[in-house]
Amino acid sequence: MKTFLAILFLAGAAWGETWQARHDHWRGGCAGRLTLDETHMAFDSDQEKDHSWKVSYLDAQQATVLETGEFRLLTYLDRKWRLGQDREHRLQVDDPQFPSRASAWLERRLDRRFVSGGRDVAGRPLWELPAKHLLRLSGTEGTLGVYEDRIVYRTGRLDDSRSWRLTDIDSISTSDPYQLTITTYERARSHYGNRKGFHFQLKQPLGEDRYNDLWRRVEQAKGFKIGALDESGAPALLPAVARVESNFNPGAFSPKGAGGMYQLLPSTARRFGLRVDGRTDDRLDPHRSSVAAGRYLNHLNVRYGDWKLALAAYNAGEGRVDDFVRRGRPLPPETVRYVSSVLSRFPGE
Fold first, then answer.
1. Region 325-330: what's the mean pLDDT?
2. What is the CA radius of gyration of the chain?
3. For every residue of 310-330, which 3-state class applies, written as one string?
């Protein structure tokens, strides 16, 4: 008997598919049917009607389809006996067509609220590296591939495979060429709203050019038009600045209070549109801090009419560069090294 049933609604909803599914309990389980249609996701249990549910797409915090056939749905409904943790439904679908067909539909309906396993992607990757995904007590080994519109991690452990569109990624960071962290909008295990980070050990080095290109793609996917903040082109320098300032670490802080990927002081951050107070620190937001750092660099370039002086002021402060320009006082050696280090990583120079 086929496990896959297709239902075409002649009126109302234009699309719908139903799969035989199993809901596992801590004692036993129950069989039923999972249905996805134009407006809802629903499970109808054959044996235990109190385990049936129906959730609209609007009320879904996150839906996950893994290559194993596992379906997870996180809702906004509280589990009061678990300190308000959000209610989650889990089902198992054995139909081999389920992961690809359900993923294609849910990705369109839920956007970044959908989490996809490492399903097949059309076309060849731009590049691919062997990698190990570090878990809490162990890890999985596979390949990390970068495509035009997404990053895919494939591993033999199918519940750990992932396919992230670039719009599903909050940020990327690295501490050295053999390490890469991808922070996604997928909910962390606690379901209290934390974004989930995937930490990879790379078996081959990730070159600076590849990393900078990936960083630009992720930022552009979120609407940040690198190279278009100003005709002077300051944003093109941002990856090199972030590399030198913090190694692309959005949570970095210096002993002097500079914070974020671009190591902005609180006063500078506020000056260029960021909120920094007891509740919020926008310097830790990769997108917002990129915009502010780009504006600051543009401002410095307009003031001094030279990118090298703009970078020197970014590092040492405008007062020291003013003294250098007006009085011929030398710049600190560390500032000279800073400018050289940034420009050496910038292909436009």
1. 89
2. 24
3. HHHHHHHCHHHHHHHHHHCCC
Q: Are 9 and 37 in contact (CB under 8 A)?
A: yes
- For residue 280, is it left (φ>0), alpha (ψ between -120 and 50) or beta? beta
* Sign of the four-CA dihedral 108, 110, 111, 117: negative
**pLDDT (tens digit, 9 = 90+) per residue, 100-147?**
999 999 999 999 999 999 777 778 999 999 999 999 889 999 999 999
Q: In order of start, what are the domains of the chain with their CATH numbers?
A: 4-115 (2.30.29.30), 127-217 (2.30.29.30), 224-344 (1.10.530.10)
Question: Is the CB of residue 290 less than 8 Å from the CB of residue 274?
Answer: no
**Better-predicted residue by pLDDT, 316 or 221:** 316
Please confirm, yes or no, whether 334 is among the known catalytic residues.
no
What per-residue confidence (pLDDT) applies to 189? Answer: 61
Q: Which of 17, 107, 219, 245 is catalytic?
A: 245
